[in-house]
Amino acid sequence: MVNLSLIGCRKCRSLPPLQQLPKLRELYIEGMHEVQHLGDGLPFPSLEMLKFEDMPAWKEWSFSISIGVEESRSQFPCLRELSLRGCPNLITVSPLRLPSLQKLYLEECEEVVLKSIVGVTSLTSLEVVDIRGLSQLEEALVQSLVALESLVFEKCNQLMALWQNGGEVAQKNNLVRLQRLRVASCPQLVSFGEELHDEGLPCINLQELYIRDCENFVCFPKAGVPHMLRLCHHLKH
């Protein structure tokens, strides 16, 4: 079996023994309202797409690491796409080492889920929607986003800046491939960088910039916007 979907099993408290499916490539789990813990029996050596949706009771996603096993070992070495939607109580997550991840989508989750994602140097698309506790991207995550092309923030009510210091990010060539930046309905956002008068956007190849319904946004970088920018929207309602 290479594809598996489990949808609307509201009374199930655990998953079947999926570790018996080493060739599984796509796994979609939705509406398992009684599941609280996941992790035993993983990793999946062939999994490429993993999606969770509407998991209100899910609290813990953990992986046991045996003594002598390298910390850099990935639970999902081939995973290209990861999506979590409607997992508001997921507060305990073991570090997720995802060396092949290209697309990450998080909606209605705690910031701890985003913090658990490490070593995503292949990530090209990151979209975060309604992430509680997120005030800015952590420096360790930003440093790994060397391949990122699209970055989207929506409905992140505590977001105040996108990163700490745009100048430092630029010097380290982080976000150098970013082409699309979209920020919508983030009412506490003040500026791109944590420093109000950041020197400039670190995204030298940015082609599309979209800001909407961010009523406290007050400051563009001193150096303006990248010269390659084709579309720029700054809307307030």
Give the gist of this structure.
The chain is mainly beta and 237 residues long.
Describe this structure in words.
- By secondary structure, this protein is mainly β.
- 8% of the residues lie in helices and 28% in strands.
- It has 3 helices and 15 strands.
- The strands form 3 sheets. The chain has a 10-stranded parallel beta sheet with strand order 1-2-4-6-9-11-12-13-14-15. It has a 3-stranded parallel beta sheet with strand order 3-5-7. Strands 8-10 form a two-stranded parallel ribbon.
- Strand 11 (125-132), helix 2 and strand 12 (150-154) form a beta-alpha-beta unit.
- Residues 66-72 have low confidence and may be disordered.
Q: Which structural class fits the helix and strand makeup? A: mainly beta
Helix content: under 10%
The count of strands amounts to: 15
Low-confidence stretches: 66-72
Strand order of the largest sheet: 1-2-4-6-9-11-12-13-14-15
Radius of gyration: 19 Å
Helix/strand order: EEEEEEEEEHEEHEHEEE
Major beta sheet summary: 10 strands, parallel
Question: What is the rounded distance between the termini?
Answer: 49 Å
The dominant shape is globular
The average pLDDT is: 85
**Oligomer category:** single chain
* Beta-strand residue fraction: 25-35%
In DSSP terms, counting alpha (H) and pi (I) runs of 4 or more, how many helices? 3
